Structure formats: structure tokens, C-alpha cells
Amino acid sequence: MSKNFLQVVLFGDSMSWSPGVAMGERYADFIEEKLSNKFGENWIVDVAACGDGGNTAQEGFGRLERDCISYQPHIVVLSFGANDSIRAPDREQFKTFYRKIINEIKQNATKHIILETIPTLDQNRHSQKDNPKALFYGGLENYLEFFSHSFIREVAKNEDLILYDRFKIYHQEIEKNPSLREKLIQKDGVHLTKEGNEFFAQHLIKLIIEMAPQIYQISHNPQVWLENAKLNPVYIECCNQIEKGDLKQYLSEAPSLKRLMLQKARSFSKRARALSNEKYVQDKALNIEYLASIFATIEKIVNTEDPEIKEKSKEWAISYLKQLPENRNLQKLKIKNLLNF
Fold it and tell me: pLDDT per residue over 115-124, tens digit each?
């Protein structure tokens, strides 16, 4: 039996894909879990982590079709500005491409867009703390407020979009409890910890739940979404590399692109599963969803040196591995060996 489906895309820079934490502890993971619990068994919720580390708004615009619009999302959560403040040639370029992204999403995907501010660029811990542009404005946070946040707030107001002002919320919380600074923000002074991801996810889902009644369930052909998942070139090559025994090496090369493509395979298969009444389609989609989740986890494990992240991510992979059907036992054994079980 088909179900309602909610597709949320987190589109932005590294803040949208959560480096420095394990699979299952990312921003997207907490949002997806909390929304799924809220909506119940008649819904399948997918929250796609479509951020790319270091991206400016211009770079995000260059991959907008592939990593956002192609999902035909119901809701997009947009997060750019931190890298622009450091890397963009000027503020006008950031403003131009930020507007372009919003306009393209409105015209080709959805009008339901949430604009996020960055919680902090911590003046004491961030690598750019001595940046002359930041020092001129009295520190990184003042500079961030001038360069991107003031514009993001203006756009939200003028275009009647939802503003999720994480900067404001973060500073309200640490004013009440300064110890939250270390609890919510990693040592690099910008990325969120596990606790930070869960904290900001909890606030975000309240906004999404308020928007949910406005979401229309447009009829789509589940076979189209299933075929797009099956024909995902990175997913196909990952399956091939299991047989060859070179999956880890494959996922260590151009990991960002492969992570984003595996996210597509996972999200598209979940949509196919939600929309279809046919058991064959549901079973095939579920298999792709689980394998894509495992492959994405191996990518995380291969490309981190942190032993805690590796171990926690393995646990996340195991939860999907156990659910693969028995006719995949040989494949399951090879994946177990890759994960050093």
C-alpha cells in the first residue's frame, strides 16, 4: 500500500551534510528521525543531506539541478553564506547567486523554502579568526552578520520565506548557558557536534511541521523514481566494486561527488517505495535504499581518521545490513568483510 511522502532537501555547504560526526548523528539524520516519528507509519520521510564542503552560493548554483531540483523536493532548507564571506570576491556576488538559487527553486521545484543563518564562526576557534576583513568588522561574527546574515534576513522578509535564524537562537542559548558553546559547536568553531545537530534539528522540525499542511501529494510514477535510483552510476559502480573487492578504494576517490550521488540513490528509492502499491517495486526500492545507505556509510568510514566516528558509523551500517534479504547473503558477507566484522 502506498504512503504519503515528504522530501526535504538540505541544500548548502558543509553545514548541510555534517562533517565531524558519525552517520546517524548528522543534522539530516535527526531531522528525518524526528519528522518520521511525528508523522507516523502512513508517511515516509526523506531528508537529503545535499551540502558540499566549502561551497559558496555560486558553486551551489552550479550543482543546483543535480543536487536539489532533480529531487522535486517539497521543502528546501537553504544554507549558504559562511564560505562566501571568506571566499567570494565580494558581497554582491553572494547576493546575486543566493537570489538565483531561490528563484530557480521556486520556478522548478517548490515555493516552500527555509532560509538558515549560520550559528557561529567562533572568533576564538575558527581558522579565519585573523582574517583582515573580519578584524575590520570587529571579529568573524560581526563580519558574518554584515556579509550574509543581514541579507538573508532581508530576503526572507521581502520574499515571504521562512527564516530559521540559528545565529540568533544560538546566541540566546549561550547567553543563558555559556557551557553550551563547547557542547553544540565543534573545536573548529563552526560545525555542529552531535548535540548541536540534534538541538538545531529540534527547532527546525517545528517549522517544517507548520508547513506540512500546505504540501500537496502530487502523483508521480514510482517506476520512474526506481529506475533513476537503479541507474545511478555511483550506486552501480559500488555494486560492481563489491564483487571486485575495491569498494573502499573507489569511495576514497572524489568522495564528495560519490556521497552526493549515493544520497540521490537512497532518496529516489525511498520515494519509489512510498508511492508504489506493487510489492516488487517496494522490495527492489528497499534493497537499493539499504545498499545506498551502506555505501554512503563506507564512504564516511573510509574518509575519516576518527576512530569513534568509524565505530559509530559501522553500527549505523549494521542496522541496514541486517535488513538486506537472504538472497543477498553473499553480498552481505562481502560487505561485512569490508567493514572488518
Answer: 999 999 999 9
